[in-house]
Amino acid sequence: MRANGDCMPRLRSILMAIAACSPMAGAGSSALLPVPAFGAQDETSTQAGIDELIGRLEKGDSGQRAEAAFALGELAAAKGKHGDRKPGQSTEFAGADRAMTALVRAMADETRTPRGPMWVVAGQALGRFGTAAMPSVKAALEDDRLPVRLGAMVAIATAGPEAKEAVPDLIAILQKDEPDTRRFALNALIGIGSDAKAAVPAVIAMLDSDDFHTQYWACRTLGAIGPEARSAAPKLIELTTEGVTSVRRNAAAALGKIGPGIGDEGIAVLIRALSDPSQFVRQQAVIALGRLGPAALPAASVIEQGLRQGRRPFRPANHAARTLWRLKGKPELPRRVLLEELAEGAEPWETAEILGEIGPELGAVDGVAALLGSENRWARFYAAVALGQMGPEAASARPALEKALDDPDEEVREAVRQALKKITASASPQAPPQ
């Protein structure tokens, strides 16, 4: 008997939430109750701690079950630096098999918890066991209960490339007439990335779906697979001009991630997309063109013209400025636009990241440093962030940063301190950590 469909109306929003977050993120910053500490303990203490977590996972209230699942996932990841287990690294610890078995059982639970549906929380935790969890995950894909199958696909998405052995199973799911399940399979393939290249033909078939949600996830999947998905270019070119807005923008994004292999026709359609009625499509097109290198040079004049307009067609204009710099190598206009976006733009955090990447090449260090004196606290904050990301190449900004240590805003002062630390540490690698 198949599981009931109680969770089906929520699947779309749950999947979007999973895609928007890194594994286990967004679920609250602190545990609802203390969890056992693991570290330099003897085996008896570790076993007792795992037993306690499994007991909470199986018999606690909804909050306790979610926190126990999270803690087991943390323990699985603790083998790696800063709690993030490295790909291929062993997750073996006393009780790991029992923990994974308990997490699979928890994936049958549709209860809402403070961290989200229990089957999602358990699936994310199971995925953090990486390759070691794959036998359990692959078996769960065959379960009669829908939440268990969906939880298994969440686990695959969390495990990422370590779950590549599940690609044939995901291809089989794509070939079934189950739209909601297919979308979770596509999300799992996104997590696997380029190692999911065997799925490209099956994913291309999803682009012909009459369900635009499926088309949307298929476009994202092909972009995640990257250059190995170049055979999808003809269909993606078609959808860049014909799909609904969410499909057009993700088809354009996928073309950029596939790269120059999309050919002249792909580049031409992205240039046409710079005039799309939707600013979201225009923005993805300009980002995609920035990934294509010299082959996209014909787009430079269109982007430059747009950036010189009073009402720019690219909002925010930060990505367009970076793309223009990559295509033409002339710093004046990109520098001016990026400084304007950092001072007054809608997404100063992205602008700060872009300036952190190319600011020194643009000769923008002094301009960013000048914004430390802005009346806009966010301009001051993200100016400090950008300078920190530039590292030692922002050394000329040290006087301005040191002056900004007296900024009236604590968050700005902390950003300034971090920037100075990064500039100093990068310039003097032998210096002891602060």
- The percent of residues in helical segments reads 55-70%
Principal-axis shape equals: flat
How big a fraction of the residues is strand?
A: under 5%
Amino- and carboxy-terminal Cα gap: 60 Å
Mean pLDDT: 87
Task: Please give the count of helices.
Answer: 23
Give the CATH topology of the domain at 356-429.
Leucine-rich Repeat Variant
Q: Which spans have pLDDT < 50 for at least 5 consecutive residues? A: 1-10, 20-36, 80-85, 428-434
Report the C-alpha radius of gyration, rounded. 24 Å
CATH class of the domain at 356-429: Mainly Alpha
What characterizes the major β-sheet? 2 strands, antiparallel
User: In order across it, which strands form the biggest sheet?
Assistant: 1-2
Query: Can you count the beta strands?
Result: 2
Please, what is the CATH homologous superfamily of the domain at 356-429? Leucine-rich Repeat Variant
* Helix and strand element order: HHHHEEHHHHHHHHHHHHHHHHHHH
Which structural class best describes the helix and strand composition?
mainly alpha
Architecture of the domain at 356-429 in CATH?
Alpha Horseshoe
Description:
The chain has 434 residues and is mainly alpha-helical. It has a domain of 74 residues: Leucine-rich Repeat Variant (Alpha Horseshoe), CATH 1.25.10. It has a two-stranded antiparallel ribbon with strand order 1-2. Helix 4 runs antiparallel to helix 5, helix 7 runs parallel beside helix 9 and helix 12 runs antiparallel to helix 13. The longest helix has 18 residues. The N terminus and C terminus are likely disordered.
